[in-house]
Structure formats: C-alpha cells, structure tokens
Automatic annotation (TrEMBL):
One example of a Gene Ontology biological process annotation: signal transduction
Species of the source: Malus baccata (Siberian crab apple)
Domain TIR, residue spans: 1-107
UniProt lineage: Eukaryota, Viridiplantae, Streptophyta, Embryophyta, Tracheophyta
InterPro entries: TIR_dom, Toll_tir_struct_dom_sf
Gene3D superfamilies registered for this protein in UniProt: Toll/interleukin-1 receptor homology (TIR) domain
Record-given protein name: TIR domain-containing protein
C-alpha cells in the first residue's frame, strides 16, 4: 500500500483474494474496529482462518459496545469472533513461549492449510469439469 490508498479498499480486496487468513488475537484485539472488520470479512468469505491466541484465551475474547458500532456491526463482529473462538488455533504465551519455535509451528500450520485449500479447489474444479 502507498500513501493515499483507501485502507478498507486495499484490505478488503486482499482478503477476498487470499486463501488462508491468520488472525492474531491479543488482549486488546476486540477494541479494534479494523481487526474485527477483517475477521468478519474472512469469516463471511468462508476463508480458512488460523487463530493465534497471543496472551489471551479464546473465552476472554468479547466484542464490547463502545458506542461506535451499529447493532448490525456488533452482531456481525460477535458472530465472526464466535466462529474464530471455535476454530482450532495456536496458543502463544509471550512470557513463557519460545518465539522461534512458535514461528516454525505457525508457518507449518499456514503452509499445511494452503496445501489443503489448493487440493480442495483442484478437486472441485475436477468435479465441475467432469459433470458434463
């Protein structure tokens, strides 16, 4: 991105093009409109999402109404957050964890998911081509 680019336009387009999303949840994640919007878009687009729970447990994540979101947005964000909370993720404790080992594990998880998504898409294309 470059200065002058519309943030939502660029981010939304990138999310629509991606195959796998990684959501890094922190204790303050749910305070960010941008984070919640991106998570909701990933979930609505039915992208595969790998949650990373950094210094936070899934049960601690809650959308709070600070008066800046519409009721529809709050419902959308809450739904997306619930979907992510019930997706197998990677926990990381920054005080006790080994950052290098965690990055290896996370990289492996992303690559494995990319391969699986590619295989599923290839299989779907094959079935569509051979139905005629």
């Amino acid at each position: 991105m470059k200065p002058g680019d519309k943030l939502f336009d660029k981010i939304d387009a990138a999310i629509h093009k991606c195959k796998v999303g990684v959501a890094v949840f922190s204790p303050h994640y749910c305070e960010s409109y941008f984070c919640l919007h991106e998570l909701a878009l990933l979930m609505e687009s039915k992208k595969r999402v790998i949650p990373v729970f950094c210094d936070v447990k899934p049960s601690q994540l809650k959308v709070r109404d600070n008066g800046t979101c519409s009721p529809d947005e709050l419902q959308r964000f809450s739904w997306a957050l619930e979907e992510a909370k019930y997706t197998v993720g990677l926990p990381f404790d920054s005080c006790k964890g080994n950052w290098s080992e965690f990055l290896k594990e996370a990289s492996h998880a992303v690559l494995q998911n990319l391969v699986e998504v590619e295989e599923e898409q290839t299989e779907r294309r094959y079935h569509v081509q051979h139905q005629c």
